[in-house]
């Protein structure tokens, strides 16, 4: 049973605003259908009064909850008791300052930071949210948990199920819509993997229906507890910057869970007096999966105090259905046309004076190669953040002297095909994987050198190319 009377769920619509017990399993407000937030009554549970209080956890890392890069911040999302939390030591991630990639983006020396969320145990930022939703699922006694996924959510859920053996994982993926790195994880971790005909948006609609009918716990980011865990990405960024907010957070936008969680984190930190300034947020869509960019920039959709234009959103989706529009980008992780957290993201954009852009597959792959050659690498979707930062810098929206943090959401090895295709000399392979998506050139390719297995030839090759 839930044991946190100070925590509750609340509908984000100001017209409704109904509240629900945290013991209830909900992915939308039963009264009006809007998304839910997890909220805290800070009169009943004392929040941390300074970062020092949180830093005190650093010296107690023998407690697995303090070792976790998510749960060492648990006083900022106190909905579970220590005994109820399920952790796998997630969140050991790194903020790296890099001038090499900073130069590519167009920033002054010392100004670009990359937040490597691919260092999580399943290789993506999803573990931050999964430990949070999984703990809630455990609290309510769930025996099966499900998600629709472009690959990373499913890998994360499958891993939490396999390691803990507390639940069985049921995974919905669009057939052929997932990279092999991610598919291999779901299969190896033993999850029931349902490859349905259709794409992520189809799988998402279906998993909502099935979990409701069968009473299976849903861990997609419509689950408000997921986003509580994902707030910790921002807590770690602040921690690495000695609690001084950067000027910009730049994040890829797919289902818009991260951007929503980051906005909530900053709004709450400001309310609690732990920060005095909120960074600006840039959410970067992939071209071909650009619903947010279209609605925000072309149709001027705004949060508007929670009174956003629902007819505009519904009309946009209706046109999409009528024209048979489907998301299409090689950044398969964000190949999503119906982002489930759209309205929460609008709130985050409002709270963080945000901007939205879209970058195409060519820009994504070029930026990805720079993250590889000047950093530790990432999967294609993650590089949308760096490509987006470069675009905003060129537009003059981001200044060269701004301190910018790009969130790298997934590990390089999640999608090796895209990387190899970019660097290959095999034109057929390039065309098959990248050319078919509109990528025309690999300007920053690092070609493998074919050389005879003869000492003299090898020495010559090193002298020529090394
Ligand atoms: N980057 C990566 C590597 C992702 O896997 C995802 C989402 C995103 C960015 C987008 O994040 O949804 O918070 O805007 N992947 C989901 C999945 C949809 O199923 O793994 P978002």
Automatic annotation (TrEMBL):
<comment type="similarity">
    <text>Belongs to the threonine synthase family.</text>
</comment>
<dbReference type="InterPro" id="IPR050147">
    <property type="entry name" value="Ser/Thr_Dehydratase"/>
</dbReference>
<dbReference type="InterPro" id="IPR036052">
    <property type="entry name" value="TrpB-like_PALP_sf"/>
</dbReference>
<feature type="modified residue" description="N6-(pyridoxal phosphate)lysine">
    <location>
        <position position="126"/>
    </location>
</feature>
<dbReference type="GO" id="GO:0006565">
    <property type="term" value="P:L-serine catabolic process"/>
</dbReference>
<dbReference type="Pfam" id="PF00291">
    <property type="entry name" value="PALP"/>
</dbReference>
<dbReference type="GO" id="GO:0009088">
    <property type="term" value="P:threonine biosynthetic process"/>
</dbReference>
<dbReference type="GO" id="GO:0004794">
    <property type="term" value="F:threonine deaminase activity"/>
</dbReference>
<dbReference type="GO" id="GO:0003941">
    <property type="term" value="F:L-serine ammonia-lyase activity"/>
</dbReference>
<dbReference type="InterPro" id="IPR004450">
    <property type="entry name" value="Thr_synthase-like"/>
</dbReference>
<protein>
    <recommendedName>
        <fullName>Threonine synthase</fullName>
        <ecNumber>4.2.3.1</ecNumber>
    </recommendedName>
</protein>
<keyword id="KW-0663">Pyridoxal phosphate</keyword>
<keyword id="KW-0456">Lyase</keyword>
<feature type="domain" description="Tryptophan synthase beta chain-like PALP">
    <location>
        <begin position="86"/>
        <end position="410"/>
    </location>
</feature>
<dbReference type="GO" id="GO:0004795">
    <property type="term" value="F:threonine synthase activity"/>
</dbReference>
<dbReference type="InterPro" id="IPR001926">
    <property type="entry name" value="TrpB-like_PALP"/>
</dbReference>
<dbReference type="GO" id="GO:0009097">
    <property type="term" value="P:isoleucine biosynthetic process"/>
</dbReference>
<dbReference type="GO" id="GO:0006567">
    <property type="term" value="P:L-threonine catabolic process"/>
</dbReference>
